[in-house]
C-alpha cells in the first residue's frame, strides 16, 4: 500500500542520511571559556578518581585489619578504576577539548581502545564478582571458603581480568577492526563483536548483580524483625548487605546503562563504518560511565567503617594522625600506643 511504501522510503532515507553524515561527521567546537570550564571539570573528576582509588589500595595494604581475602576484590576494583583514570581519561580529555578529534594516530588508537575496554570491563566484572562474594558471604558464612582463602580469591580476580582481555583482544586478532578515519578513533562497530562485547562487559554482569541483590534482599526480608537476641547481628548484617549492594547496583546502572544502550544500538543505526551519533551525546554518556570509577571508592567507604576511619587517618595532618597497633586496632590522636611487652 501507499502507507507502507512511504514508511519504507522514509526509513531508508533516514539510514542513508545517518550514514552519509557519519562519513562527514563534524567535530564540535566550544567557546574558549567553555573549553576552560569543561577542561577544569574533567581534570577534577580525573584527580578525585585517582585520589579515591589510591586511598583504597593504600588502606588495604597498610591496615592489618583490612588485609583480608574478601578485600582483595576491593583492591582489584580500585586498580581497574585507577587505571581508567590514569591511562584513559587524560586522552579522552584532550580529545574532548579539541572538539572530538583524535590526535594520537592509528596505532595508538588501537592501544587506547584496548586499554579503555580492558580497564572498564575489569571494573564492571569486579563489581559483579563482589556482588556474588557478598551474597555467598551472607548466605553461606561457614561453607564459603573464598573469604578465608587468599589463593582462591586471587584466582577469581585473575579470571576477571582474563574475561576483560577476551573482549580487548579480538580487534588485534582480525575478528573486528577498530575505526580510525578522519580524526575519529572508535571501537569496532562489527555487529557480532558489538553484541558479544556489550553482553559480556555489561548486560550479563548487570543481570548477575540484579539477581544477587534480589536474593540478598529476599534473605533479609525472610529474617524479619529480629525477635531473638542471637538473630540481631545476622539480621543487621543482611540488611546492611542488601542496602550496600542496592546502592552499588543503582549507581552502576545509572552510570553505565545509557552508554551501553547507545553502544549496542549504534551499529544497527549508523552502519559498521563509523558513528552518526552526535559527538556531544557520546561524550556525555561516556563520562557518565567513567564517573562510576570515581564513585566506587566513596560508596564502599560510606558503608565500611574501617575503610572510612582509615581514609580519615590517611588524610589527617601528620601530627594529628592516629596510631595503628600491631593487632589492627586504631589509637586516637594524642593517645599512646599500647605495648604488650
TrEMBL record:
It is a multi-pass membrane protein. It is found in: Cell membrane. One of its GO terms (molecular function) is serotonin binding. Signal peptide: none annotated. Residues 52-300 form the G-protein coupled receptors family 1 profile domain. Keywords: Behavior, Cell membrane, Disulfide bond, G-protein coupled receptor, Membrane, Receptor, Transducer, Transmembrane, Transmembrane helix. GO terms for biological process: chemical synaptic transmission; G protein-coupled receptor signaling pathway, coupled to cyclic nucleotide second messenger. It comes from the Eukaryota. GO terms for cellular component: dendrite; plasma membrane; synapse. Its main location: membrane. InterPro entries: GPCR_Rhodpsn (IPR000276), GPCR_Rhodpsn_7TM (IPR017452). The keyword Cell membrane applies. The chain crosses the membrane at residues 36-60, 72-93, 113-132, 152-173, 193-214, 241-264, 284-303. Belongs to the G-protein coupled receptor 1 family. This is 5-hydroxytryptamine (serotonin) receptor 7c.
Amino acid at each position: 500500500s501507499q502507507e507502507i511504501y512511504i514508511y519504507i522510503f522514509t526509513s531508508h532515507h533516514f539510514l542513508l542520511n545517518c550514514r552519509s553524515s557519519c562519513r562527514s561527521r563534524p567535530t564540535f567546537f566550544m567557546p574558549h571559556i567553555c573549553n576552560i570550564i569543561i577542561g577544569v571539570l574533567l581534570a577534577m573528576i580525573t584527580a578525585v578518581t585517582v585520589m579515591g582509588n589510591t586511598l583504597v589500595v593504600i588502606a588495604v595494604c597498610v591496615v592489618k585489619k583490612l588485609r583480608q581475602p574478601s578485600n582483595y576484590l576491593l583492591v582489584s576494583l580500585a586498580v581497574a578504576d585507577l587505571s581508567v583514570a590514569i591511562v584513559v581519561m587524560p586522552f579522552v580529555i584532550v580529545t574532548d577539548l579539541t572538539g572530538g578529534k583524535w590526535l594520537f594516530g592509528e596505532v595508538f588508537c588501537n592501544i587506547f581502545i584496548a586499554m579503555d575496554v580492558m580497564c572498564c570491563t575489569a571494573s564492571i566484572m569486579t563489581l559483579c564478582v563482589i556482588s556474588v562474594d557478598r551474597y555467598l558471604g551472607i548466605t553461606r558464612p561457614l561453607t564459603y571458603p573464598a573469604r578465608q582463602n587468599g589463593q582462591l580469591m586471587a584466582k577469581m580476580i585473575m579470571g576477571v581480568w582474563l574475561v576483560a582481555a577476551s573482549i580487548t583482544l579480538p580487534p588485534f586478532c582480525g575478528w573486528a577492526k577498530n575505526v580510525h578515519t578522519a580524526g575519529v578513533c572508535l571501537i569496532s562497530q562489527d555487529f557480532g563483536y558489538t553484541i558479544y562485547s556489550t553482553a559480556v562487559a555489561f548486560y550479563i554482569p548487570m543481570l548477575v548483580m540484579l539477581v544477587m541483590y534480589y536474593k540478598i534482599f529476599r534473605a533479609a526480608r525472610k529474617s524479619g524483625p529480629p525477635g531473638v537476641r542471637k538473630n540481631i547481628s545476622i539480621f543487621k548484617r543482611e540488611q546492611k548487605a542488601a542496602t550496600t549492594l542496592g546502592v552499588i547496583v543503582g549507581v552502576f546502572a545509572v552510570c553505565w546503562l545509557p552508554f551501553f544502550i547507545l553502544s549496542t544500538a549504534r551499529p544497527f543505526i549508523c552502519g559498521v563504518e563509523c558513528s552518526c551519533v552526535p559527538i556531544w551525546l557520546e561524550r556525555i554518556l561516556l563520562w557518565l560511565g567513567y564517573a562510576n570509577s570515581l564513585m566506587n571508592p566513596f560508596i564502599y567507604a560510606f558503608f565500611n567503617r574501617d575503610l572510612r576511619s582509615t581514609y580519615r587517618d590517611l588524610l589527617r595532618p601528620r601530627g594529628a594522625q592516629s596510631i595503628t597497633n600491631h593487632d589492627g586496632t586504631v589509637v586516637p590522636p594524642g593517645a599512646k600506643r599500647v605495648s604488650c611487652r
